[in-house]
Amino acid sequence: MTDTSSDGSPTEASSDAPSTEASSDGPPTERTHRRRAETERWRGVAGVALALVGAGVVTRQPALVVVGAVGVGYAVYARIGSAPAATLDLERRVSDDDPEPGDEVVVTVRARNVGDAAIPDLRLVDGVPPGLAVVDGPARIATALRPGATAAFDYTVRASRGAHEWESALAVTRDAAGTEERTTALATPTRIVCTPTLSAGGDLPLRGLTTVSHGRVPTDIGGSGVEFHATREYRRGDPVKRIDWNRWARTGDLATLELREERAATVVLLIDARESAYAATDPDADTAVEASVEAAGQAFSALVDAGDRVGIAALGPRDCWLSPGSGRAHAARARDTLATDPALAPTPGDGSFYRSLWLRRFRRRLPGDAQVLFFTPLVDDVAASLARRIDAHGHLVTVLSPDVTTGGTLGRRLAAFERRERLRDLRGSGLRAIEWGDRSFPVAVARATGRWSR
Amino acid sequence: MSRPERDDRPPTAAVLGGLVAGSVASLAAALADPLGGAVVGLAAAAVLAGSLRRAHRLLSWGVGVGVVGLAVAGYRGGAVEPLLAAGVALALAWDLADHGITLGRQVGRGARTRRNVAVHAGTNLLAGGLSVAVVYGTYLAAAGNQPIAALALLLFGAVALASALR
């Protein structure tokens, strides 16, 4: 909330002088004619009027004739004039074009009539991006504009993760009597980008598929490390520090301690962003995609901090792939991808999803030694079967599932039951699975870690 | 992400304006003729109900009943002046109610609409006023000795002119 002028009662300026320089610095408004239609709201008025006149003539009552004649006047009123063109210059200002998630952004819209004709009846509906919720005041106004006059209104949206582009505003104009209606789309580019910072998550346990580089995932390979693994016969050249002196004292044989080698892993965070994954516990709540992206951000920073190579992919109609990497620049790229990649947009995109095509492309890109952290709400069987198939190809899969099936209705209970079954099947086939609902992702991970053996 | 439900009732100004205009119409019609006034009052109530229930059909029925009320008042020998006022007020009441419904549907009650409603009511009154001025002036000039049929013929001339304008 940085804008102090959002008192909810903006003035309707009708002077043309002060707004000229304001609208000239912005990009020009692109006007597209959409529709023109008769409203037919005055239909029948002439007939009624003439009927009254006729009745007056027959009954010899001058009052009826006079009233009917006035009705004819309305018929004429309805017929003159046509809906004016929406000759508007639209200017949209946001109080903050780089907000944090949850910030309230005040949007001020000024529409100036740059035409020569007055617009007696104008209804303006702003094209708020689908991913943003209007929290204060409708993004709409109805007014009348003289040539050169400006109408201004503002509303507040709550920022959510992603790059949000405003759609065309719709202007509906009518003539004074409202006989004809004309719809015009007014496009003026406005964009806000909301990039959440990657919050550090807890320690994320990985499965035993690793690269040759040193890291922190304990392996079954003996070597240097901190945890005891085995002992073996001494060979020349073994470091003196690792000689098992206790045994030498006991038996006189030289033996060398093998410690568990800790290596780095390559991890790909796979986020389910198919249309079915945009499920939420209630219409106003965050979707499962939102929860997945947030958790993936936490997992990313935890893994990168631990020295693993981490990449990002989306399971959905749009392509999204960030190759595994490490380092500060890579973290910045990942933050951008998680925040603004269209494949992970806060609302589902268009296009259809082809499972086998997607899997083929994903496997081609996936490094051979990569394991997959699969974030999915598991609301359908496709996600579960994909997890099993990726796992079967040798990429160890851990399923991390935000629970969006809480709630009391029968349908929700059925969905929750089916989801539990899927989770059980996955665990039965040897995949690891974490689910989290109300409690936070790190807490769920910490609980699960205690349960898992390596 | 979903949006909170928008209030798509007609703007308060349009509903109130329609109510006031409807009351004026029934009062004026009652001055001309009590029975006609009662019928017009019924019409005003129907228009108000249509406005509140967002039903264009109810509005049409309301204004139809109102015209019948005017006809009854005229038939029973009501005076010209209050009947004219009732007609103009009835037209305004219907127009505001109907306009309010579309406004509610397109921008909702929460948006700023007062200027739009005021301009719409103003142009409607202007059109009604002009129409009354012309017709009543003609009536004053022609009434007394001219037969009603001549007035009606004059009117058909006006209708033909209006159609030609189109």
Can you put this structure into words, describing what you see?
The complex is a heterodimer of chains A (454) and B (166). Chain A is of the alpha+beta class and 454 residues long. Chain A folds into 4 domains: 131 residues, Sandwich (Immunoglobulin-like), CATH 2.60.40; 35 residues, no CATH class; 48 residues, no CATH class; 186 residues, Rossmann fold, CATH 3.40.50. Helices cover 29% and strands 31% of the residues of chain A. Chain A is built from 10 helices and 19 strands. In chain A, the strands form 5 sheets. Chain A has a 6-stranded mixed beta sheet, sandwiched between helices. Chain A starts with 19 loop residues before the first helix and ends with a helix. Chain B is mainly α and 166 residues long. Chain B has a domain of 113 residues. In chain B, 81% of the residues lie in helices and 0% in strands. Chain B contains 6 helices and no strands. In chain B, helix 1 packs antiparallel against helix 4, helix 2 packs parallel to helix 4 and helix 4 runs antiparallel to helix 5.
